[in-house]
Amino acid sequence: MLVFEGLPALRHDVTAEGLAAAVDEHLEQTKEHAVRVEQAFRAAGAEPSSNLSPVFEKLARHRSELAGKIPDDRLADVLNAAAAAAIEHNELAVYDALIALADSLGLDDARGLLEQNRKEEEQALHRLRTELDRLAQATARAIAGSTGPGR
Fold first, then answer.
1. 131 with 19: CB under 8 angstroms?
2. What is the pLDDT of residue 149?
3. C-alpha dist (Å) from residue 138 to 78, 132, 133, 142
4. Of 18-27, 98-107, 139-148, where does mean pLDDT reach its minimum?
5. Which domains does the chain have, with CATH numbers?
6. Of all helices (H) and strands (E), which one includes residue 27?
């Protein structure tokens, strides 16, 4: 599975408006990232290919299985935000490796393209973490309110 193939399924499952907007925005960015990665590979004299990522495939499958077992949309959205953040962490690690390789090979053009993607991935991760915190706090308040004294 390519990373951007899992985002529409995640987006379909999301009910929280802020998280949905973050996923929508990142889906569009990810399409641009794919173009830049292809350009970086060509700058390195390599032909890009669409290899499936078993890591991303397993993360997406696991998220989907868990989300399907959570009857409360709010809790499911906390899981969805956490899963999206986990994927971002993985993407950042991949970009770190590619940037180090481009740097070692003196491929400045490729490095610049990859660094631009990495910067946007960091921004996406920050936004997802913010949404995760917001969703977790709102969900905790709702649960506490429904199980408070006298209930």
1. yes
2. 53
3. 10, 10, 9, 6
4. 139-148
5. 3-143 (1.20.1260.10)
6. helix 17-43
Residues 6+ apart with CB under 8 A from 18: 131, 134, 135
**Look-up of token digits 């690690």:** 93
119-148 pLDDT, tens digit per residue, is 999 999 999 999 999 999 999 999 888 765
CA-derived radius of gyration, the chain: 18
d(CA 72, CA 61): 19
Rounded-to-integer distance, Cα 60 and Cα 71, Å: 19
Element at 86 (helix H, strand E): helix 73-104
| Residues 98 and 121 sit within 8 Å (Cβ to Cβ) | no
* Residue-wise DSSP of 56-68: HHHHHHHHHHHHH
Cα separation, 110 vs 140, whole angstroms = 44
Write the CB contacts of 147 (distance below 8 Å, at least 6 apart in sequence): none
The pLDDT tens digits for 68-78 are 899 899 999 99
Mean pLDDT of 100-107: 96
Rounded CA-CA distance 120/98 in Å is 15
